[in-house]
Amino acid sequence: MVRDMERSTSTGGGSRVGILEAALREQQTLQTPVALFSEEYDSRSVRERFTHLIPLSRPEPGGQYAFEVNLDACTGCKACVAACHSLNGLDEDESWRDIGLLVGTRRQPYLQTVTTACHHCVDPACSNGCPVLAYDKDPATGIVRHLDDQCIGCSYCILKCPYDVPKFNLRRGIVRKCDMCQGRLSEGEAPACVQACPNEAIRIKVVKKDAVPGHGPMIPGAHDSSYTRPTTSYVSSRPVPETATAADDGRLALDHGHPPLAWMLVLTQMSAGGLAGAALAPLTPDQAAITSAASLCFGFIGIALSVLHLGQPLKAWRAFLGWRKSWLSREILAFGALPAGAAAIAAAWLFAEHEILRLAISGSALAALAAVACSVMVYVDTRRPFWSMSLTGGRFIGTTALLGASLCAIVWSCLEAPPLPWAMAFAITFRWALSLWEISSYRKALEDEACPWHRSARILNKHLSRQLELRSLLLVMTGLVIPVIIAAGASKPWMLGLSLILTFTSQLVERLFFFTASAGAKMPGN
What we know:
By secondary structure, the chain is mainly α.
């Protein structure tokens, strides 16, 4: 070969090519089959490469785009995760697509990786719960988009979504999520995850909204589809065993504690209870006005603290926009009536309009109780077992009655109001009743694996046992020791004040349990 090249360099119109250059040129033509295939593949346009993985036309009326995942082709390589992260310019600790794992049993072995992102549901819970209308479901494509410039960072969509799709971005103070690379789809290009998968396990298809399943989980370990009707479909040539479970099913993890919300809930419920006491008890106008003022002060402190929960607090004024479908907006509107009630109470008291004063106090109490009812629904609407109507309603109503009576007791003790003994008796009785109900419910859930909130009870038992012991100690102090000291003739205002502080602390600890042990739903194995 070298002789041939030497011969070719000495002839041919004076064109001389070096031996090394000729050898390199010949080497470039010796492509392997893989290299030849790659060269042919790269020679085609991006649109030609992926047209079989995306629809050739936009959905017709009544249809929408949806992900389809071929479980047989998914290897869990996370190429889709990396591509989504890179092409969408996500932050270092941010991810819009995850890889989960399903496992079988000893008698029926099974192992399957599951790639998952937003399911662009027919009835998206994130959109239904957003108080500022920061979600938009495109009527033409069905893609659920998040409008970053509208978001106030309240994170309620995170609580509402049963698939753990929206992710809070701490640096930006907002929530973000997958939008199916809508810009690429509109130009005929496949989304980042579809392009990156080496086995073509992910594709985009068009589905009829009416045909999307509305019952049962889309895959073992996922939330029931009746809640949001997710459009993602998982296909496989081998059926997924009914006994398959998420690989992390036994992991008991604490959820976010949301301290500002815990403080807000306890303070506003104490305020509502105090206003109810002022409206119902036989008090003089001055006593009723002072009791109402003390109650409203605690309520306003709670409302102010709730703003600390927001990633974009300066946009909090927009939180009423979703009142037609969001319980969070309705709660905010109900609490928004309290300043007007406070102004009416102050005006009626200053001008000695006793009948109007009674009406203003009663109206404020009704608004506060309506706000507490909305608070109950804010969490019931997420459909978490630990936040069921019976449990959440019992806790919130119990806190309202208990702390309201305790607050009235200390105010009436200072004012020497006649209903003081009734307030003290009610607070002590309700303290024991509420605590015994909580303890019995917890014990039952811990022992009964079929209980819907058995997992939450296990989380409490494993991670929060010290806090449970603290609550038991506070129960003994506020329900037994302090009442005995008061009965023995100790100073009532001081002891009642101490009792209120300890009772408030107990309910605040319970409210932290409420959030950290909620065991929110998510996709299996993520």
